[in-house]
TrEMBL record:
UniProt name for this protein: RQC P-site tRNA stabilizing factor
Quaternary context: Associates with stalled 50S ribosomal subunits. Binds to RqcH, 23S rRNA and the P-site tRNA. Does not require RqcH for association with 50S subunits.
Keywords: Protein biosynthesis, RNA-binding, rRNA-binding, tRNA-binding
Family annotation (InterPro entries): RqcP, S4_RNA-bd, S4_RNA-bd_sf
Role, per record: Key component of the ribosome quality control system (RQC), a ribosome-associated complex that mediates the extraction of incompletely synthesized nascent chains from stalled ribosomes and their subsequent degradation. RqcH recruits Ala-charged tRNA, and with RqcP directs the elongation of stalled nascent chains on 50S ribosomal subunits, leading to non-templated C-terminal alanine extensions (Ala tail). The Ala tail promotes nascent chain degradation. RqcP is associated with the translocation-like movement of the peptidyl-tRNA from the A-site into the P-site.
Organism of this sequence: Salinithrix halophila
Family: Belongs to the RqcP family.
Record domain RNA-binding S4: where: 1-64
Pfam families per record: S4 (PF01479)
Amino acid sequence: MRLDKFLKVSRLVKRRTLAKEVCDQGRVEVNGKTAKAGTEVEVGDTLTVRYGNQTVKVRVDSLKETTKKAEAGELYTLLEQSAPHRDGTGS
């Protein structure tokens, strides 16, 4: 499955166009390597997504073409999540 589609189906990113933009900006890694939107994602891959001042690291557990909102969290396991910086310094 394409990376941008997985990000959308898993609800890690709200829209597929936004998922593509995030990938194009180099803010998504698959198994430690910067990935493009068309990168194929497989079960067992580790994804790291940087949203502004927060980073989320997940392991892909399942691939589905569509999913209900309640089931989206079952597609991955959260490995790490950095807390957003609130002091405005970015540190």
